[in-house]
Automatic annotation (TrEMBL):
Domain PAS: 126-186
Lineage: Bacteria, Pseudomonadati, Acidobacteriota, Terriglobia, Terriglobales
Protein name: histidine kinase
Source organism (scientific name): Silvibacterium dinghuense
PANTHER family: PEROXIDE STRESS-ACTIVATED HISTIDINE KINASE MAK3 (PTHR43065:SF10), SENSOR HISTIDINE KINASE (PTHR43065)
Chain ranges of the Histidine kinase domain: 258-458
Record NCBIfam families: sensory_box
Annotated EC: 2.7.13.3
Reaction(s) this enzyme catalyzes, per UniProt: ATP + protein L-histidine = ADP + protein N-phospho-L-histidine
């Protein structure tokens, strides 16, 4: 309404309505009866319609009709008076209700417009933040249509594929990630995908790399779409393979050392027998007997080769973080076997000096032994606890299984009574000793108990 720009107070506008009604009534009373002022009441009624609810509008319309009838100076009679009053009330009420409805709709439209502006502003801010996040992300992000054409690609995607900025949009993904172009898009009878895959990627210059791809497919009004995040996993793959190779070589050295030790023992026994037989004059100068002695000495020299590993990488390891990683690896298998796990790691546990991968292999081997021992055991329990003393950290790995029948046969390679090769505990202890640790078995009233003894890091205490 035009007066809203002048009167911002609702009370002031109501005062204006009453002033207009009183003024019109006075003017109608003073002016000649031949000039009726009843139509002038339309203005305050229109103003009232924008301020009051419908019942108050009806009451004001009735009041204005009464004032018009009283002061217009026209003679009132039954047929004409009733008709005139009815017209007054109807006209004033209709105009007032119309003004009220228009005002209500205008306010609703204004509120809706404000909400739209607020939502548009919030949407623009969210889009700007999302665009900034995508563009500044170190992870390559692309969106594709149903034909495999790239709709959006950030700077990291261009760097990953070795392309100038802005040149990926509109091109196909097939030359760079062929498997991604073969993913079915959502459609009638097809489900959406939200998963991860590892595949081969290609750069513009033809260089291949290993790609980890997280992608999802989704339908839109413009057709099916796919969003994908791509990471070059080649370096992680090389590190993983290098670590696996180092662990294989380390285990192989320890295994060969164990075999060499056994061969040396046998060769020593053969040498003693050969020396005793050499006193027999009939064999002393026999060529085959001399060849047997030569072969025995050669085999003994081969077995005496120093195959100990000197390449173990000893670092400072935080045991809390280490056992969090171990729990991530063990939890699924323990849950599948319905084995309850208890971890007791006190606060302030010092860091230890060890090779991370070798230490992980030791605990995985001990856990695997406990899993085999606890198979089918009711109330199966696997526990791990640690304590520190005198510059060392002792970690107890225990279970409530049937225990060890012959503890004296533990840590012997190629033990006949072992369920597999008998190398697990032998290799575990050898790995620990390579970084000044140790593994021992302790008798327990229930199940098996192994102690992993590690050297604490004096320069990195928790």
């Amino acid at each position: 309404m035009p007066f809203e720009f002048i009167f911002h107070s609702r009370a002031a506008r109501l005062a204006l309505v009453m002033t207009l009604i009183v003024g019109i009534a006075l003017a109608d009373w003073k002016v000649n009866a031949d000039v009726p002022f009843g139509f002038a009441y339309l203005l305050p009624i229109v103003l009232a319609g924008g301020l009051l609810n419908r019942w108050y509008v009806v009451l004001i319309a009735a009041l204005c009709a009464l004032l018009a009838e009283l002061f217009d100076g026209l003679t009132w009679s039954m047929p004409s008076g009733i008709t005139r009053d009815f017209l007054y009330v109807t006209a004033f009420t209709g105009i007032g209700l119309f003004a009220a409805e228009v005002t209500a709709r205008r306010k609703a439209a204004a509120a809706h417009l404000r909400n739209l502006n607020r939502e548009n502003h919030a949407r623009r801010e969210a889009e700007e933040q999302l665009e900034h996040l995508v563009e500044s992300s170190p992870v390559a992000i692309v969106t594709l249509d149903a034909e495999g054409s790239i709709l959006l690609a950030n700077d990291a995607a261009h760097r990953l594929f070795g392309l100038p900025a802005g040149t990926l949009t509109g091109t196909g993904i097939t030359p760079y990630l062929p498997l991604l172009a073969n993913v079915p898009h959502p459609g009638e009878g097809r489900q959406s995908f939200r998963t991860m895959m590892q595949c081969k990627g290609m750069r513009r210059d033809g260089e291949a790399f290993l790609a980890d791809v997280w992608f999802s497919t989704y339908p839109t009004s413009a057709g099916p779409r796919m969003a994908a995040m791509i990471v070059d996993a080649s370096e992680d793959f090389r590190d993983r393979e290098q670590t696996s190779l180092e662990q294989l070589l380390l285990g192989s050295r320890i295994l060969v050392s164990a075999v060499s030790h056994e061969i040396r023992n046998i060769c020593g026994a053969i040498s003693v027998v050969h020396e005793n037989l050499s006193r027999d004059s009939t064999l002393a100068h026999h060529s085959d007997f001399e060849a047997l002695g030569t072969l025995t000495q050669a085999l003994k020299r081969i077995a005496a080769m120093d195959l100990r590993d000197r390449s173990a990488v000893i670092t400072s390891i935080d045991l809390h973080s280490f056992f969090e990683e171990l729990m991530i690896l063990l939890r699924p298998s323990l849950q599948d076997e319905e084995i309850r796990a208890i971890w007791t790691l006190p606060e302030g546990l010092p860091a230890v000096l060890a090779d991370h991968h070798s230490l992980m292999q030791v605990f995985l081997n001990l856990a695997q032994n406990s899993r085999r021992a606890l198979a089918g055991h009711e109330g199966a329990l696997f526990s791990l606890s640690a304590q520190a003393s005198a510059g060392r950290v002792q970690i107890a790995v225990a279970d409530n299984g049937p225990g060890v029948e012959n503890p004296a046969h533990l840590f012997r390679p190629f033990e006949h009574s072992a369920k597999s090769t008998g190398l697990g505990l032998y290799l575990s202890r050898a790995l620990l000793r390579s970084f000044h640790g140790n593994l021992r078995y302790e008798p327990s009233s229930e199940g098996a108990l192994f102690i992993v003894d590690l050297a604490a890091d004096p320069e990195n205490q928790a």
